[in-house]
What does this fold into?
Amino acid sequence: MSSYGAADIQVLEGIDAVRKRPGMYIGGTGVDGLHHLLWEIVDNAADEAMNGHASSVSVTLHKSGDTITVDDNGRGIPVGLHPKLKKSALEVILTTLHAGGKFDGTNYSSSGGLHGVGSSAVNALSSKLEARVRREGQEWVQHYRRGRPKAPVAPVGPARGTGTRITFTPDATLFEETTFDAERIRSRLEVKSFLHKGVRFIFRDQVNKVSHELKHDGGVVDFLGALVTKHEARSVLEAPFSLEKQNGIQIDLALTWTDAPRERVRSFVNGIPTRDGGTHEQGLRDSLIKALRSFIETHALAPRGLTLTAEDLREGLIAVISLRVAEPQFQGQTKDRLNNPDVRGAVDSSVRPVLEQWLHDHRTQGEALVERAVQAARARIASRQAAKKVRRKSATSGRLNLPGKLADCSSRNPDECELFIVEGDSAGGSAKQARDRRTQAILPLRGKVLNAEQATLKRILGNEQLSNVVTALGCGLGGDFREDRLRYSRIILLMDADSDGSHIATLLLTFFYRYLRRLIEGGYVYLALPPLYRINVGKQTHWALDDADKDRILASLPSRAKPELTRFKGLGEMNPKTLFATTLDPAQRRLLQVTLDDPLQTDQTVSNLMGKDPSQRYRFIMERADEVGDLDV
It folds into this structure.
């Protein structure tokens, strides 16, 4: 049995502690930890810019891919002797934990670096580091190996201007990988350029031989626009709401609501991204809900019989909030979360009254936000009730009971399987004979489909036709929806090429939009385009989708041609060979993918055309009558 006594207690000091347990200082030795070294140095340079002492920061990724230089035109790290430690202040900062000039708030009103750990940790975890400082008309240099200086700080000649340049190479014996990701660096620097408006960030990528100059005078408003574009969202507001305010803390805020189904908030404190949020995000959310509820109450906009939750009111929100705080309390050295209790109230009291007044001054846009929240509430309630129905059904059956009318395919690989939802038993019979039995499943529906926009949820969930569709798909509804359980990669609505077929397709699309919208958003839903006419000219056969297509084909034929026209009354009239060649064969068929270009407009259109209020339908038809090219009555 081994002894364990006082002599076994180790005391690690300074850089030895960092090298022994790097994860405590940079979060780990993987890719994230590697790049955290760079962020520490870049944040120090950005602190100079944040406090008005620098106008540019440059980062150079050297050809080797594992060495980085960060250069700023700030004041330059002091190089004089430290009065207590009797060595250069530069050496103290780069070799001593908890040493820095940001503790008393005199030289920096706000900063990302707080604990005096970042620079010394980077030095300790680098195989080599070079520090060059320009100040007082002189350039000074010092070299380090694994955190230890090779020689004292020394002047190397005259210098123009001021600033600091740090070049370092991470220690390959400590990190899993030492090659930096150029795109990751460029992206981080672009975010910095948004947060520090007017400051020029330059990234010289010698690995890929490209250079990027990043500068955004619009600040967080420009950042918000970039995020909306990145997420391919459509803004509900005509222009974003923005705010710059000093209330004990400096707040820069820009936000909008979009048609996207989720909420996105990007938050920063002293230029540091707080990925896990914190009290500043809580304060922002508090202010938004209070302002919106006050607006709704003032203008009597509360929907009857519907309760709007905080999640409903925030759905679709995209926001950027950047704070400058004198004494931020971060959670851990990686600073992913802000913990200052007072910040929550400061953000709330700064944002709420301004946003509330903005809503009153822009009432039309405020009402659009309320309508957006109403849609979110209806979707939430429908999903919850649908999920209850699915859970009740699944609790009584231990296996998947497929509908009796479903002619399933033999393959069990969803990536190659497709489901044709077909109008009527006659067309279903032809499709079953025509299909590729290995990959194509057929589900015939009998008669008109229930209108999901007008029916109660109880009727919808009890409807045999729609229930068969959900069961065949296998992915569930509402909160129980799981894309990984979907049994087919394509869901194809196959209806007759006439007004009845279009009506049935519209009813099915209404159901999919209201209750299985994620299938449309995922690109799974298609409309088959079967021909309405067959045109035989000698040994050639042409297929026309509609009258306009028929006229175009006929006009293209030679004048001597004597075409024979056949108009199909329905899919059931086609023999299986013709149906496969024109509509089921992946190599020849024509499909139209169902997409949502503007979900808000789609929602309004579905409500107008399929809802219970006939006046909305009449108004829509009268306003759009001139857009109708042909009407089949």
